[in-house]
Design brief:
410 residues, alpha+beta, Spore Coat Polysaccharide Biosynthesis Protein SpsA, Chain A, 17 strands, binds 2-acetamido-2-deoxy-beta-D-glucopyranose
Amino acid sequence: MGTLRLTIPSPSPALTFVRNRQRKFLYAGLSSILLLVLWGTLLIVFDAPYGGLGQGIGSDGVSLEAVRNQTLGFEKIFCINLPSRTDKRDAIVLGSSITQFHVDWIDGVSSEDMSPKAYPPHLDDADRPRMLPGEIGSWRAHVNALQRIVSERISTALILEDDVDWDVTLKTQLHDFAQGALALQPNQPHASPYGPSWDLLWLGHCGMKCERNSPFYIIKNDPTSVPAYALPQYWAGPAIHPLVDNIKHNRLICKSTLAVCSTAYAVTLPAAQKILAAVSVAPTEESMPAGESIVYDVMLGRLCETGYLRCISTYPSVMGNWKGAGLPSKGSDIQYRYDGPREERVFEGASFWGVVYSVMDNLGGLVSGERVVRASVRDVMLPVLDLGRVKGNRGKLHVLDYEEMVLSGV
Ligand SMILES: *[C@@H]1O[C@H](CO)[C@@H](O)[C@H](O)[C@H]1NC(C)=O
């Protein structure tokens, strides 16, 4: 087909393109070659100023500011951690203390400690892809988190895996995210600062897709938007379209379908009940289709994709991952990794993925009271960030006309 030309939004209003009907007629009269060239042209229309959402306080008095409280606007925050990985618990306790939020623990599970009778349902179906022992343990730990939410009637909870890393400016990011999430939902009374009608907020993922043909929110000039080159491998996508996803310094917030990696996600109590049913107690063809993987994050993504859960997510992911310095096997407790014979072992430095101002990467300065942080990736808006000058960013709803490749505000 024709060339796909991206017209990057220019700061100058003089370069703003507006496509109208007359122009369409003119195009129709041109030669077929020209038509082919124009076919895929992406016109980006940034016509209205950002803002004007007016959603400061929910109708029953929940303030957006609640996202900055000790549990980030959720009732509880849980982190899943194998008790034997005390090193990771140290890191989460320190990082969350610096970012000023509080984490409760869900003990990770080793599949060897489980009765095979308690393994995921349909695990042994003839055509089912095999699950690693670590994946079975991880499934159980996540299900334990859901069980606790249901049992204690926790209205909303954020669930983290213990190799999570996040941005020093997390609370500001969540404030911006909540504004985006609210813009995607009906304007109804709500008890959660994130809005009235969501089941799952997918905040830490490794790839996601937005619902096609529904409006999505774009925040421009978000200094915490990880540039595309520096993203970890994303296994699902594009979020909207590669040309839209990769506009520099943008963050997209949308109703999401497929997503992978359960690094960080929030659920409501009714959603925890629904997921507990679908992945453990009462699985259906919808949650565990024949021949498909039932690894936990894959199932969760499927439940968003089928519409069983109303999911909201952001591209790029808000949360990322890190691995402390040491042997390569130090990272994941799910995938088995052999470090080689003792005399040949290679030690690695710490590594960080998917976050611009990584808390874990900046711990040294932060514990000494430094108020300036460094970006962990290159090619960002601000390589060095003064924490006294962090400010939020408002965005605006957009739609993409996939046929004409026109992006416009709504
Ligand atoms: C934070 O805000 C949420 C939502 O309003 C609330 O459920 C939670 O209890 C608050 N957390 C704290 C520690 O006050």
